[in-house]
Amino acid sequence: MKTQKTVNIVSGKNIQKKYLRDEMMPHIFCNGCGLGNVLDYTLWAIEKEGLDMEKTVFLSGIGCSSRIPGYIHADAFHTTHGRALAFATGVKMANPDLNVIVFTGDGDCMGIGGNHFIHAVRRNLDITVIAVNNYIYGMTGGQVAPTTPEGHFATTSPYGNIEPPFNMSDMAKAAGATYVARWPVFKPHQPINSIREGLQNRGFSFIEMLSPCTTAYGRRNKFRKIEDLWAHYEENTILAEDYDQIEKFGTPEEREALKDKIKIGVFHRETRKSLEQRYQELLEELK
Ligand SMILES: Cc1ncc(C[n+]2csc(CCOP(=O)(O)OP(=O)(O)O)c2C)c(N)n1
What we know:
The chain has 287 residues and is of the alpha/beta class. The protein has helices at residues 14-19, 35-49, 84-94, 106-112, 114-122, 168-175, 189-200, 226-236, 240-249, 252-256, 275-286; strands at residues 56-60, 75-78, 99-105, 128-133, 136-137, 143-144, 179-184, 205-210, 237-239, 262-269. It has a single domain (31-286), classed as Thiamin diphosphate (ThDP)-binding fold, Pyr/PP domains (Rossmann fold), CATH 3.40.50.970. Residues 62-65, 81, 105-108, 132, 134, 136-140, 145 line the site of thiamine diphosphate.
């Protein structure tokens, strides 16, 4: 059961007062980083859904993105690298009434945490995972990640990455997530709506946020100015429906122009019993 209280939306700046821990400021995020936006959008989604913060717990692994729960005035587990989903499984199974929200990075989720990820998804645990994809290991200074695009530069790929990257949302869908969406951070409404849908979904919800890392990724990849990196996301993302239309009906030039484009949107919605629902049913049956 999702626990909700009466929705009484607070106005603009008050959202920060209501949900953020003053004592944690100033935050650690660099200028031009998208993590503040991810945090803001999550708070708006929580506010609009009227989630009871006494019944909400945040978990994260290790990385810049995994620092997000530390700023929120709520219970949280800052766990070990890649293991947030293992801890989240324990929290949700032990106390199915809690709203469980996980923040993870592309390295945390798809690198060291890859195995935990596919199994948590397969089980359709009722949690909302906000995976921040910045194409790099940000916190440790810019090593290549499992999501770094081919040819892009990192401290450990100084001549360009020669490995094909994982597509996080495709992985989530293939492993069995019941809600999957990807959005860049430069606009608020679609990510907020997706986080809301994720919170409503009784199952594994995966929201991939494409977020610029100016310090570790941008300056190594010819985006020396913050605005250039943000513009890159705006220019190179395309709604999945539009992509598919062009692929089917576009001219050869239009199809060629799709080559480096990143699909965004809601990729998957499905209704399937969650792990703790099935577990409760089994307990009833065995009684
Ligand atoms: C077991 C273990 N291995 C390695 C590290 C070092 N480490 C800390 S953060 C990090 C990368 C995090 O990258 P990502 O999940 O993409 O998060 P970002 O900082 O980019 O948000 C690594 C390798 C660690 N803390 N623990």
